[in-house]
Structures are given as C-alpha cells and as structure tokens.
Amino acid sequence: MASVGAGLHLIRRRAAGRSSAVERRNLLTVCRFSVKTLLDRSCFDTIDDSSPEFTNFVSILEHILSHRLKGHTTWFGYESPRNFWDYIKVACSKVPHNCIRSIESMENVRSSRAKGRAWICVVLMEKRLSDYISSALRDFKTNRRFYEDGAIMLGEEAGLLADTLIGLNTIDFSFCLKGEGVDGSCPSVIDYTPYLKFTQSADSISSDEEEMRTLGSSGSESSTPDKVATAASIFTEQSNLVTKCKRFEQKYRVALEQKGYLEELVRLREAQLSEAVSHNKALQQSLADTHLSHTVEKGQLEYIILELQDQLTVLKNNDLRSRQELTAHLTNQWPSPDALDANAVALDTLLYQKNTAQWEDSKSFQSLEQLSADMSLSQTSLERSNTLSLEARTAGTHWPRQGKEETPSLRGLCGSLTSVTSYKSLASLKSSECLASPATEISSPGITPS
After folding, report:
1. The pLDDT of residue 85
2. I want to staple 346 with a disulfide (CB 3.0 to 4.6 A). Which of 152, 306, 381, 417 is the partner?
3. Which of 207-216, 282-291, 439-448 has the highest mean pLDDT?
4. CATH architecture, range 2-195
5. How far apart are CA 5 and CA 9, in angstroms?
6. Phi, psi at 287, each rounded to 5°
7. What sections of the sequence does the record tag as coiled-coil (predicted)?
8. Residues 6+ positions from 41 with CB-CB distance below 8 Å
C-alpha cells in the first residue's frame, strides 16, 4: 500500500509539473502572439483602452505576473490572495524615475487590481514596460519571496518575456486613466480565438471531396462525375487563393511596418540634421563676431601703442632739454677759480690794513668791525655755494661774529674787492712783502675792541 501511495504521489507530481510547464508555455506563446497583433494593429490604427488587442494583452500579462503567486499569510496563519501589484511595487521600486508613487496617489484607483492595470497603461505610454520587467527579474530575493516554485517569473522563460516586450516600445499608446476602464472589478479573461490556426491536411481535403461527390450524387440525379470534379477543383483553387491572399497580406504588413520604421528613422535623422545645421550656423556666426571683435581690439591696441610711443619720445626730449638747461644754469652759477683767488687776496689785504692802521676813535673802529663782519658773511655765503676745495681752504680760519645781521651790503663790497684795481694793489702789497697771514692777525690783541 505504501508503494502504491508513493506511486500515486509521484504520478500526481509529474502531472502537476506537466500541467505547470504546459501552462507556462501557453502563456508565453500567447503573449508573443498578442505583442505581434498589437504591432499589426498599430500600423493601421491608434491603440487605446478600447482596443480588443490591448484588452487581451493586459489579461495575458496579468496571468503571467500572477502565475503561482504566493498568498499573504496573516498572524493567525490564514493566507489571503495577493495581486501582482503587491509584487511590482516592491520589485520595481529601484527603477529610476518610476511611476509607483503616482499610481499609489491616484484617487479613482483604489483596488490592487485596478492599480496594476493602471501601472500597465502608464508604463506602456512611457515605453518602459520591458525595463520594469527586467529590473524585477534581477531581484531574486523578492521573486523567491513572492512566487512559488514553477512560476514563470522564476523560470528561464522570463528572460524571453522581457525580450518580447521590447517590441511594444515602438507603439504610441493613448489611454485615459480617469474613467471606469481601470476600475478592476471585472476579472481578466484571455481570448484565445485570434491566435488559433487550423491547417487542413491532405487526407482531410480528400475526404471533403468525397463528401461533396456524395452530396452531389444524392442531391441531383443529373449530376455527373465531371461536375463533381469541377466543384472540387474550384474549392481547391479557392482555398489556394485564400492562402496566397493571406500570405501576401502578411508580407504587406511586414513591408508596411518596415516602411513606417524607416520613415520614423528618416524624420529623426532629418530633425538631427536640421539641428546640427542650425548649431553650425550659430557657431560660424559666433566665430565671425569673435574675429571682428579681435580685429577691432587689435587696431585699438596698435593705436594706443603708437600714442604711448609718441608720448614717451616727447617725455624723453623734455627730460633731455631740462637736463641741459639745469647743467647750463649750474655752470653759470658756479664761481671761477680766479674769482676765488681774488677774494682770498682781498681778504688778506683787508686784514693787513686792519692790523697796521691806527684806530684813533671808536667810530673808525666800528667801521673796521663792520667791514670784518661783512667779510665773514661773504666768506660764509661762498662756503655754502662753492665746492669742497674752498671749504678745505677756509676751514682753519674762524672769524668772530659780533652779533651783526647778514645784510645784502656784502655783494657790493665783494664786487669792489674783486675789481681789477684792488687786485693790482693787493699784488703790489704782496710784492713789497708787507702782508701778514690771517691767522697771525686774528690772534693779535691789537684788533680786539676796547
């Protein structure tokens, strides 16, 4: 009995595995057919939420995402059914710029089934359904948590599903998410009739011909085998024509799809070309403006350089002229060595006369004192304006100053002393060897005022 029970359990497991495999294969095949019908319909008409092809596709996708989906287990051990939206909002939360929050915030969409259908519509309009499915398939932990063994989302066929859904990115969908189409109250039912195809075999065709002959002979006594053969040939020709017509129609649809794709590609390339041409024109205009401004700035800088060079030349000439004038002025103001020697001789002569003269009264002594003061002032003025040679010559002689103020009367006196006559008289006095040195005369007590 145990072996019989084990055998029955094994048979049931095999049957369940076979049924699950057949179900997966049927859903994926029907999904592929549904995508093809949507592509064919998009070549002739705009697809909206009222199109039967779209309704059937949504039902197929709901069945695929809900295949062997685990229920939600409560604290009390009860298991409540889940909808595929509970899986999508967790598995697709890492998709950049996803629409999950916007679906959750819709006011007219409340049930999980309605939110799942609204999500399908939104991602189809965004042309990102394949991206969402691929991102969900990469989250293995979430898939294991939500699906049982044998589910489509856990099998290798799920990768083919994501590749199949890429073709929907070429279709422009238009849906209204504010009406009753996303209510979600009605369950999804798949319509398999558009995807069923029956091919009549040769034996079946021959049996149909026999049946037509039999019906022809029983229906009319005047019927002949030639007529029956003619009717059979006509039926065969009609079936062949229908097959050829369908074949040509399929080729026409394929060519029309290719034509639409190429036209869209050409429009895209034309738009890119026009944008590139406008950008090139803008760059050329900017380059021309830059070249013009560069030329203008270059001319202005050249003019400024020439003007600065002219100003520098004028300043150099003015500086040279000023130097020449200053040199000439200083040369004219500088006393000659002959004048310096004449002043020294005149000074020695006056000192000798002051030492040898007889001062009888105080008036004559005051005049001599005034003369000595004037001579000391003259010597001081010469020391300030002459060279170091004159300073070294007169540094040993210090004339006493009697508190007299320096007056311009020295100029006339110096002129008289440096005259030709006084110079000759001083020279004659020197020749008679009667002159004394200034140092001896200054130290003599005879010139000290009483």
Report:
1. 93
2. 417
3. 282-291
4. Up-down Bundle (1.20)
5. 6
6. -65, -40
7. none
8. 47, 51, 53
Distance from C-alpha of 167 to C-alpha of 127, rounded to nearest angstrom? 10
* Cα gap 211→318, rounded to integer Å: 133
The counts of H helices and E strands in the chain are: 16, 2
Burial profile 150-172: b = 16 or more Cβ within 10 angstroms, e = fewer: bbbbbbeebeebbebbeebeebe
* Burial per residue of 51-67, b for 16 or more beta-carbon CB atoms within 10 angstroms, e otherwise: bebbbbbbbbbbbbbbb
Per the structure block, which two tokens stand in for 188? 């999804």
> Any idea what DSSP says for residue 69?
B
Looking at residue 253, what is its pLDDT? Answer: 84
The rounded distance, in Å, linking the Cα atoms of 151 and 143 is 10
Count how many residues are written for the chain.
450
Decide if 69 contacts 88 (C-beta within 8 A): no
- Classify residue 126 by burial, with Cβ atoms within 10 Å: 0-12, 13-18, 19+: middle
pLDDT, tens digit, 9 for 90 and up, residues 52-81: 899 999 999 999 999 989 887 766 666 678
**Range name among 86-90, 289-293, 414-418 with the lowest pLDDT average:** 414-418
Q: Are 154 and 147 within 8 A, CB to CB? A: yes
- Measured over the CA atoms of residue 430, residue 433, residue 437 and residue 443, the dihedral's sign is negative
The stretch 217-229 carries a mean pLDDT of 51
Question: Could you tell me if 49 and 137 are in contact, meaning their C-beta atoms sit under 8 angstroms apart?
Answer: no
- Greatest CA separation for the chain: 204
pTM: 0.46
51: left (phi over 0), alpha (psi -120 to 50) or beta: beta
The DSSP bridge pattern shows strands 72-73 and 79-80 to be antiparallel
Distance between CA 393 and CA 391 in Å, rounded?
A: 5
Closest CA relative to residue 194, chosen from 351, 5, 35:
35
Report the C-alpha gap between 17 and 151 in whole angstroms.
Answer: 11
Instruction: Please classify residue 368 by burial: count the beta carbons closer than 10 Å to its beta carbon, then call 0-12 exposed, 13-18 middle and 19+ buried.
Output: middle
